[in-house]
């Protein structure tokens, strides 16, 4: 196995104890970064919270009240659903 990532031009890997220890520290840091990235990617609760916050921000005003367009859409959808139910009953 050749290793030129540590800057050793002949690809034989680290040769002194200090180089070996520095390589181990670098690999641990890379592994920790990888694990942290995977953990963040797989955190379903955090993704759900972020989506809910984004949606909440889109449908409410700065004061926390629902945007008029959202209210009008909800009223329109409810009226349409009521009309469909009423037409099926008649």
From TrEMBL:
InterPro entries: DUF3618 (IPR022062). Gene3D superfamilies: Tetracycline Repressor, domain 2. The chain crosses the membrane at residues 69-86. Pfam families: DUF3618. Keywords: Membrane, Transmembrane, Transmembrane helix. The keyword Transmembrane helix applies. This is DUF3618 domain-containing protein. It comes from Nocardioides guangzhouensis. The lineage of its organism: Bacteria, Bacillati, Actinomycetota, Actinomycetes, Propionibacteriales.
